[in-house]
Amino acid sequence: MEEIEFILDSAKESMNGSVDHLEKSFLNIRAGKASPQMLGSVFVDYYGSQTPLSQIANVNVPDARTITIQAYEKSMLQPIEKAIMVANLGFNPMNNGDVIIISVPPLTEERRRDLVKQAKAETEDAKIGIRNARKDANTDIKKLEKEGTSEDVCKTAEEEIQKLTDAFIKKAEEHLVHKEAEIMKV
């Protein structure tokens, strides 16, 4: 019985990890208004090592269409500007010598549709992760059944795994619906 509990717990943990990853990847999909998370994927060459932008600069959002980046060291303004360009986020940073200013352009209808497609792809990846966790758990349960665990106990565990799978897939789809509405809102 302890083995079954362990299998259920690890499957739940794995499925939860897929949904958490989905939530994090949704933060990088912009939904119209500026946010510091938009630059979450930017890594800057900081004295030879790739460092997240947030560790070498202060990222602020003074209004819905602007992001300002204040480097902790003025000498890092050029490398930060370069890193933003290399990250290919569709932003055109302006360096005024003190701060870097990014004007976030409003999303076109076509760009919104692309972002929704991207969100759907991320959701599909999360669902695949959830289904893989189910497959792994079911494989482990089958092994236990071959080793002599009662058929009823294994059947119940498989049903429990399926309930978890359904719940987590539903959660992922709810996140998608919410993100899609956020993206399409003008």
Describe this structure in words.
This protein has 186 residues and is α+β, with helices and mostly antiparallel strands. Helix content is 60%, strand content 15%. The chain has five helices and six strands; from the N terminus they run αββαββαββαα. It is elongated, with a radius of gyration of 22 Å. The protein starts with a helix and ends with a helix. The model has no long low-confidence stretch (mean pLDDT 89).
Q: How many DSSP H or I helices?
A: 5
Task: Give the low-pLDDT segments.
Answer: none
* Main beta sheet strand tally, sense and closure: 4 strands, antiparallel
Distance between the termini: 53 Å
- Overall, the morphology is elongated
What's the β-strand tally?
6
| Rg, Cα atoms, Å | 22 Å
Class by alpha and beta content: alpha+beta
Strand order of the largest sheet: 3-4-6-5
Strand portion: 5-15%
Helix coverage percent of residues? 55-70%
Helix and strand succession? HEEHEEHEEHH
Mean of residue pLDDT values: 89
